[in-house]
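User: Fold this; tokens only.

Assistant: Input:
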Amino acid sequence: MKRFTPDIRKTEILKAAIIVAKTIHYRHMTRQEVADQAGISAPLVTHYFSSMDSLRTDLMIYAVDQGEAEVVAQGLIDNNVWAMAASDELKAKAKKTLPW
């Protein structure tokens, strides 16, 4: 396993969590699924994100910052505060990803 700075490792975990959230839903993803996607151990996910709630919060902030409409749409459905604070443009794009 390659050593990364803490900021880079955290970003890599968030990128993996985006992929998992797009296939499962951010509320249903597990620490192990994120770890598997990132190619790291579940305890390392815990090291960077003390709880799944912490990971989900940081994931939604990251999704908004990166314009990840599919994940933001999941947050909008959940009335997630970070998703709700997204730009009107991103929220409109996110709503277009919904199947209904």
